[in-house]
Write a structure and sequence with these properties.
The chain is of the alpha+beta class. Helices cover 33% and strands 22% of the residues. The longest helix is centred in the middle third of the chain and has 34 residues. 57% of the residues are buried.
């Protein structure tokens, strides 16, 4: 990978169990949680009697090894080091396959260490890991921890660490780390223990490397994961009563096959993404994949079924946010559309509750990990809602998942809600009032052209859903409304230069019409190929060194919306040229954090949010080129 990752993924399971390296060298600084707070795991290689450090900062001790390589794939990060005639390979791997619910939920991540003597001399080689109490507390020394140890079949040793008070699901919010549950450090063919360093507790694990290598594992048992309308839900992997010790043993048994499977997956992703959008595009998708997966938690409710809960990371902590799920869905539509439906279910549940007072879709369902109702704008302020935005998002997501997954059952079960939202779009979406859209950092804007396009695509989505559920006759009025509104939109939004305006009443302005991309993906033909081509061509004069601003009001942009806009390009080469500044932003930004979506196109500095699941939106070109959301039937054609 030529891309210098702003942060390197190491352990990527869910919003709480997430460890990264935010430096060019793994042994240049302490490892951290995605929030930037240290989640320290130190790694050492003892060569004969000399201790070398391959992971962790200078404060950890040991002589730093020379890092000679770094390769990042979709699910693995592989470092190479050298010292004193020994070459060490460290392979971090979290098997979060989107199409395998048991694996993506299982909270076990691997570190495989292997060593090779390069100078021909005999060596005694021992690897050691030390993991801080920071992994099971919000901050170090928050409270005393309890430590225990045990062994599993197959020579697997483990040590366990957790806080003494265990406030399970008590806390919630954004810039916090988990302070309940138990962290496990495991090794096969070695031993584990614990240590105290300056009053801070560490788990330790040691194993010899002379026989080719050692397999360490990190695991986390969060006991309970989500509060769902008053019910406390466990992680999906626990649904049949499985224990964390059983999950760890299974993970060790699965490792050889999973490693081979991951290598195939990552090769396929790189090949397919490069064919769709070029080598730089493939690198961005490889870096984004684990981040997107680790921004969700999978649980199951007896009544509502599978639930896939996102967290707005370093944004406001909202859970199951509709306008975060919407941009993230392309990756899931490509790999497992059922997870898009699992994102929709909490929103549908809340929309039916007596606590939701409006005839449009809500913004969110709580503050992670508590899903008890909308918290954005205090949940009930009518002036700070996103009516057209969220209605359009819900309809497009439902239609895209139904087309890609060939299953409209979720729509059938909730047709009344989707119909209510589609009618809202027909009534209010043609010329939106003064309200907020997805890019809420720009606040309210009346007559928003991009928002009106979302309304059009939401109405077309209702028609698609009706046809897929066998109600073609009832779909006709929605097709008619979508076509009429699209023609009206072109007349009122046109700005005379081939492009369209920011707002209908603002000549001489522009904005990215990323919502229009669904006309191309669905193949609904509401806008002509020529109209889409002219719109895309009109953007080039506004390009900055690190990408195209969202609109004429400023110089900031969002990586997800740039990928959506770039997908309007007809050729692979044109798309690659459009996205090259985005690659350059990730490569050169001074903000060493997991991929941040909102940033300056002039300075490459990020704004606030980081690690958000919206990077799943980068996959939209791959999705479009594969034709996974192409809708081939109905009157809309």
């Amino acid at each position: 990978m030529k891309l210098r990752a702003p942060a390197v993924p190491l352990i990527t399971v869910d919003p709480y169990f997430s460890v990264w390296s935010c430096a060019d060298r793994l042994n240049a600084a302490a490892t951290c949680h995605w929030t930037g707070h240290t989640n320290t795991i130190n790694g050492f290689l003892t060569i004969d009697d000399t201790v070398y450090r391959f992971m962790g900062g200078e404060e950890a001790g040991g002589i730093p090894m020379r890092q000679i390589s770094l390769e990042i794939t979709a699910m693995a990060t592989v470092y190479g080091f050298e010292a004193d005639g020994v070459r060490l390979t460290a392979r971090f791997f979290t098997p979060v396959f989107a199409d395998d619910l048991d694996l993506l939920s299982r909270p076990v991540s691997y570190l495989e260490l292997s060593a090779e003597v390069t100078d021909g001399r005999a060596r005694r080689l021992t690897a050691e890991l030390r993991a801080s109490e920071e992994l099971c507390l919000d901050t170090a020394r928050q409270e005393p921890v309890e430590i225990s140890a045990g062994r599993l079949e197959g020579g697997i040793a483990f040590s366990r660490m957790g806080g003494t008070t265990q406030p399970v699901l008590v806390g919630g919010g954004d810039d916090i780390r988990i302070d309940w549950g138990y962290f496990y450090l495991c090794v096969r063919g070695g031993e584990t223990g614990s240590a105290k360093v300056l009053g801070e507790s560490y788990l330790t694990a040691r194993a010899p490397l002379e026989d080719g290598g050692a397999l360490f594992a990190f695991a986390y048992d969060d006991v309970e994961s989500i509060v769902y309308f008053g019910k406390r839900l466990k992680a999906y992997w626990k649904r049949d009563g499985k224990t964390i010790e059983q999950a760890i043993a299974e993970a060790y048994g699965d490792y050889p096959a999973l490693r081979e499977r991951e290598e195939r997956f990552s090769r396929d992703l790189c090949r397919e993404a490069a064919a769709a959008g070029g080598e730089q595009y493939a690198e961005m998708l490889s870096l984004a994949y684990r981040q997107v997966m680790a921004g969700h938690k999978l649980v199951r409710d007896e009544e509502d079924g599978l639930l896939y809960i996102s967290k707005e990371c370093l944004s406001n902590g909202c859970a199951a946010t509709v306008d975060v799920s919407y941009p993230s869905m392309p990756m899931y539509l490509y790999y497992n559309p059922a997870l898009v439906n699992a994102m929709l279910r909490p929103v549908l549940r809340f929309s039916r509750s007596g606590d939701w007072l409006y005839g449009f879709a809500p913004h969110d369902v709580g503050c992670y990990p508590h899903l008890n109702g909308q918290v954005y704008s205090n949940g009930s302020d009518p002036d700070h809602q996103m009516p057209i935005e969220e209605c359009g998002n819900m309809l497009v997501m439902a239609a895209a998942a139904a087309v890609a997954g060939k299953d409209a059952s979720l729509f059938v079960e909730n047709r009344d809600l989707f119909e209510q939202w589609a009618e809202y779009l027909i009534r209010y979406g043609e010329d939106p009032a003064d309200q907020i859209c997805t890019d809420d950092f720009f606040k309210h804007l009346p007559h928003n052209c991009n928002l009106a396009v979302k309304a059009i695509m939401g109405i077309a989505s209702m028609a698609i859903l009706l046809e897929l559920s066998g109600c073609s006759g009832e779909a006709a009025p929605y097709w008619q409304s979508a076509r009429r509104m699209a023609r009206s939109w072109m007349e009122r939004a046109a700005d005379g230069n081939g492009g369209t305006r920011l707002a209908f009443d603002q000549p001489g302005t522009y904005s990215l019409k990323y919502n229009i991309v669904w006309d191309k993906l669905f193949g609904t033909g509401l806008f002509t190929t020529e109209e889409l081509g002219r719109e895309f061509a009109s953007y080039w004069p506004y390009m900055n060194p690190y990408g195209l601003p969202l609109d004429c009001r400023g110089s900031t942009s969002k990586t997800d919306w740039l990928a959506w806009t770039g997908t309007l390009a007809e050729s692979r080469e044109e798309f690659a040229r459009f996205m090259a500044p985005v690659w350059r932003y990730f490569h050169e930004t001074e903000n060493r954090v997991p991929m941040a979506d909102w940033y300056s196109t002039k300075t490459a500095k990020r704004f606030y949010s980081q690690h958000r699941t919206v990077q799943g939106g980068l996959f939209i070109r791959l999705l479009e080129q594969a034709g996974r959301c192409r809708y081939d039937g109905g009157e809309g054609k």
